[in-house]
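Let us practice reading a record.
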Amino acid sequence: MPPDASKTRDKLLDCAALAFAEDGVFNASLIDITRQAGQRNRAALRYHFGSRDGILCAVIDRHAEFLAHRERDLLDVALATPDDELAPVLEAIVRPAAELADSGWRGRCCLLIIVELTGEDRASYSVELQSVLARTGGDDVYELLTARTQFLSEELRIERFSLLVMFILRAIADRARLLERRGRRSRPQLDYEQFVQNLVAMAAAALAAPLT
């Protein structure tokens, strides 16, 4: 790819990441993204990425290998723990997401995008989008969590998993936003490691909570 084309592509990706995170994956204007990237040709985005799904997948794919790699490392640790321990497995969800949010604005934008996409039925997405989301990881963690939560009915397990993932990702994304804005009215924040450990502990308690 020529240098100028590569720069254009990267600029489009950055502008799309910001727009998708701030305005929503399906509400962000592709025309505005193209304009913010400094492109007068409205077809520039479609030339480089083909469609909304194409650029969305490219934005996520920039971070997919990092998330999957960190998950695999932490999952190896979790597999060596007793079969009734939930916290080590949940850490394989929490820590990679927290590290991504802590890596800079691009990582935080990607996390917010994933938060939005996680709240919808993945089966409704295109094959391309389902594939890139799968590359970020998650399936092996959920398989191990399922094995360690046999005390839950299938219906309750699905409900808790869904709510828990949204809670974890939203908590991390909200913390990143608060730290980025750092105003006098912002509430005090735990340091990074305390935040991660506390979130893991809260998630484990919620997953194992009795109904009565």
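A brief commentary: Residues 28 and 106 are 17 Å apart (CA to CA).
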